[in-house]
């Protein structure tokens, strides 16, 4: 059983992420999708809760789910300790995939083989969120079941409100 | 017994806050004043400790105190979990008042009725702090007993130092 | 303005606690009632939430409330750092009252004058809770408004359930 | 889409747990298996890491996995806040299943419908662990793929060592 | 430069610990003395603060100090993550020495070579503390400079008080 | 025994720091070098782990080490509580030295005498890091044994990568 970690925030899960999973599963038996920064939600960069993101990933994966794990994992203050923290919550894996250079750097220091996933032109979490906030076409950038879920939870309205309020990850909640 | 929460940081407690409490107590039997971001102090945005702020609120409320609770509550990393955290430390209440849109949003998601309080023109915590830092007239913006307390603890000098050092909420404490 | 801290868990607030507050207020202008171990609830030793305990204390104090603060404070892992943590959330005070020897020891090490409060024979938090659990007379041990509040929140039933399940402060929540 | 939470520690996942999932999936479309006390491992009561437990559950579920989520969730100090914490990391659900009375009590207080799952006579996590420690027959109490995984990670040897050392959940790590 | 970790709680640093350091320095160039459970103090098992213990070790080591590091490190909830946490705060080392089997087990799982240190008959931290509490001869069990330091900080009186109050590591601070 | 604290982040330990230690040891018997912000590493401002920094300081101090302690200490959220936190992990000291005004302010509030250390023109942690990042001469700004250590751990390459990725102390680890 060959297994790899795929690490992202999935705010939201988009078609680039889906391509990454397909790419990983063309070589590995199973993939562990790590939903990082799990404790954060209701901010511009992290509008969706970990539970919502986990549901997005499962729905977005469709039949690929049977070869996948989806595991939300909190950030921790220490970059040096973070890979060990991830591995505490994940099934054993041989390699780490992420499009984030820094994630790869930290896992290399820990002793793992790391890989980039192929980028899909013009798709990223921040692009999808900005289109939601500005009324642009975000639906074509996410798998259809993810769009449905976002509609069910009024996700677009939430993103618009957070952008209007400019609630950042470390936003001041209580100015008064 | 009808009761409402009133949520702010009270850095410091000013005449706008006092008006809000009066407004709430015109409809509710009791108010629970939540001193949010309680763990922070000695920064530009949060110069005063929770204990100092609690004392400001009690003194500022005067005879209204007998119908009031004053409860300091820490921020927590998860926005989604924060309303439940507040409710853990507060007596039962039916509604939430805050001039902070984001606070209202989070409590609405939790299932509470939320309200704005009437704004007093030209008064806000950041205005009071800036006037302290710049030697302007801040005394007219706070209830007289709050001004006395700020004098007793050398609050203006503290705010000036923090502004001069530009110590932000996430300030680097230890550059060297 | 002479002020003292009075530190307890108030699970629940009983007539001995009320006597202590009266005793303190015979010498001091104000008392700061510290509701310690605030984060704990729904255990045998800590059945009530901090918010419930704060409400108990206010109701139990009656007219003494206008000379009192009631402030919930979490436990922290370090005994050495705990007095400073308490002082972060409380108005300035000159002395500390507690019937807990260890609390007094820690504040003495920090440099405070500490005092015992006069004990009321046959009353303690654990006696009240045990009587609740066993169907004994607990009402005569708490101020009448506290008894009313405990009735409103079905407190006796809660304590009975927790005793039946033997949920300790560090109880295993998830054996399966 | 009707969905329920199923909450346990799964130390390890045994045939009683599997029956519970089948029972839940006879009524609900999907189940969210919450691997509680996720941060603990290498103790007598919690020998396996969250990642190992997640893998056990997926393997043990077999084809039922496509209708299941498996989500590790840390304990938090506040019992009152814990249900909200669980819901932060889980897809929306209508009901909560657990054989732990206390878990059900906390979710009832939060406002959820809760249910027991049918008990399988003579099977529990502590029975399985004790048999591992004492050289008894534990294999018949877990689904065969779980037994295989436990063999792969030398789980029996680990449990024996932890029992020999008597490492409890709050065990002293550093006596010297 | 060959370096080894030596892990203990040093409550207090005794002659057995000193022998261990000598033993390690007979093979390694340097030793990193890890003062574990650093956040705990003022309990029966952990009477001394991390700072006091660090001072004990330096004084106790005498001229060996120039080949030693002394580093206080907090406990963390996850046993699996704890070795990585230790390594975050310590200079690079090749091996781990500890008389605690469980410490060795956790570092073996992490991939380190681990060793026991030679036991000195009749000396352990708990023996020293009990003798302090009961008025026995504890001085012959610690290096003379450690005894001096314990005298300077009134350590024996502290231990006696903690034993009299029976303050355990997870002791109830606030019964009332 | 007269002792002083010297507080910095030591990212990395440079010749200005060494001068400060010499200055302190000209008046005090011993110095306690506090490696602050210990939990942070692998960022632009904090590239090195606490363990690496501790090793830098010991090597950089050379024979002065026998009169020095080197103690890594985490940041905590509360500025008011931070001096007490530092003192929990450090041997008793009479005074605090730091070139950081804010550090001195917090210790003054706590009741300590505080002092600046003499600045060495043109040397600071941020200057050294920027030179590393930009290929400038950083070696002349650190004691030779510190330069050797930085070479052994490929520190320059690490700093360059972190600058290229612009990983700040609160950097987004997981954009995707």
From TrEMBL, chains A, B, C, D, E, F:
Recorded GO CC terms: cytoplasm
Principal place of residence: cytoplasm
Single biological process term from Gene Ontology: NAD+ biosynthetic process
Protein known as: Nicotinamide-nucleotide adenylyltransferase
NCBIfam families the record matches: cyt_tran_rel, PRK01153.1
Database matches in InterPro entries: Cyt_trans-like, NMN_Atrans_arc, Rossmann-like_a/b/a_fold
Compartments in which it is found: Cytoplasm
One Pfam family, short name: CTP_transf_like
Annotated metabolic or biological route of this protein: Cofactor biosynthesis; NAD(+) biosynthesis; NAD(+) from nicotinamide D-ribonucleotide: step 1/1
Molecular function terms, GO-annotated: ATP binding; nicotinamide-nucleotide adenylyltransferase activity
Taxonomy, superkingdom: Archaea
Gene3D superfamilies: HUPs
EC number, UniProt record: 2.7.7.1
Catalytic reaction annotation: beta-nicotinamide D-ribonucleotide + ATP + H(+) = diphosphate + NAD(+)
């Amino acid at each position: 059983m060959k297994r790899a970690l795929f690490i992202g925030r999935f705010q939201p899960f988009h078609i680039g992420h889906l391509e990454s999973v397909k790419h990983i599963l063309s070589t590995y038996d199973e993939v562990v999708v790590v939903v990082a920064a799990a404790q954060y939600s209701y901010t511009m960069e992290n509008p969706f809760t970990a539970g919502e993101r986990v549901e997005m990933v499962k729905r977005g994966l469709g039949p690929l789910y049977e070869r996948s794990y989806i595991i939300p994992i909190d950030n921790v203050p220490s970059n040096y300790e973070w890979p060990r923290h991830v591995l505490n919550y994940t099934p054993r894996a041989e390699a780490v995939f992420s499009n984030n250079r820094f994630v790869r750097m930290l896992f290399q220091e820990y002793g793992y083989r790391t890989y980039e996933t192929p980028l899909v032109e013009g798709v990223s979490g921040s692009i999808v969120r900005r289109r939601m906030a500005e009324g642009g076409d975000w639906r074509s950038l996410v798998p259809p079941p993810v769009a449905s879920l976002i509609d069910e939870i009024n996700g677009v309205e939430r993103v618009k409100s957070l952008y209007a309020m400019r609630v950042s990850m470390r936003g001041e909640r209580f100015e008064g």
